Amino acid sequence: MKQPVLFKDLGRMPYKQAWDYQETLLRQNLDIKSRLRQLQTAAAGEDEQMADEPATTHHLLFTEHPPVYTLGKSGDVKNILISEIEMNKRGIEYYPTNRGGDITFHGPQQIVGYPILDLEKFETDIGKYLRKLEEVIILTMADYGLKGERSNGETGVWLNAAIKGSERKICAMGVRCSRWITMHGFAFNVNTDLNYFNHIIPCGIENKQVTSLEKELGRTVNFEEAKQKVKHYFEKVFDAELVITVN
């Protein structure tokens, strides 16, 4: 049976606002898990009580952010090559975060996906979860005639990953998982202004390029079409059914 996942397109939203929203959804699921565990250790009548308790809910959020640099919890601030004053002049925000990974950029015309999933209903394996997220993007790229690849020891999706000097990253990933509830996710460059990446060492990986669908195809890509493809392959890879929500 396919897992239902509530889908919401947040449109263009400031990074901190989207982060807070993710934290709210994460906390709701953690509270439900805590309640169910309490009932599991309760006395007589627990079966009836548990039947009335809500279950955890999966979510997938799509958004675009105004220009922002975000640093993972294990990242190095030295990978930011621009001063705070210069960031302010250019209208770029900056946030240290609680996700994995290093420094990356989010901006307009980039599909940012935030899955809040209870992996106990999928597979309790973070490595497999990340490989599935990568597969969603790899399949999407194939629809555009591009071969997305994984790079050994480096999370995300690349082109020419094994060809030294030609490696280029098209999708960055960084997640957090608390009691098997996920948050944060992926950033897929569609028509993203790649000049912003010149001011950081993306993901802390030196001497490797960043690219986008627009750059690889030599044309502007229909952004809404790309989002639909990512949604389709998310359903396929995770054996899920997206349920559109608007509130």
Task: Give your account of this protein's structure.
- With 247 residues, this protein is of the alpha/beta class.
- It has a single domain, classed as BirA Bifunctional Protein, domain 2 (2-Layer Sandwich), CATH 3.30.930.
- The protein is built from six helices and twelve strands.
- Strands 1, 2, 6, 7, 8, 9, 10, 11 and 12 form a nine-stranded mixed beta sheet that branches. A three-stranded mixed beta sheet has the order 4-3-5, covered by helices on one side.
- β9 and β10 form a beta hairpin.
- α4 packs across α6.
- The longest helix has 26 residues.
- The protein is globular and about 60 Å long.
Compile the SSE list and pairings.
Layout: E1 3-12, H1 15-40, H2 46-52, E2 58-64, E3 68-71, H3 84-90, E4 93-96, E5 103-106, E6 110-116, H4 126-142, E7 149-151, E8 154-159, E9 168-178, E10 181-189, E11 209-210, H5 213-217, H6 223-238, E12 240-244
Parallel strand pairs: 1-2, 1-12, 3-4, 9-11
Antiparallel strand pairs: 2-6, 3-5, 6-10, 7-8, 8-9, 9-10
- CATH architecture field: 2-Layer Sandwich
Instruction: Give me the CATH fold name.
Output: BirA Bifunctional Protein, domain 2
Largest pleated sheet? 9 strands, mixed
Query: How many domains?
Result: 1
Low-confidence stretches: none
Q: Terminal Cα separation, in Å? A: 26 Å
Radius of gyration: 19 Å
Helix percentage range: 25-40%
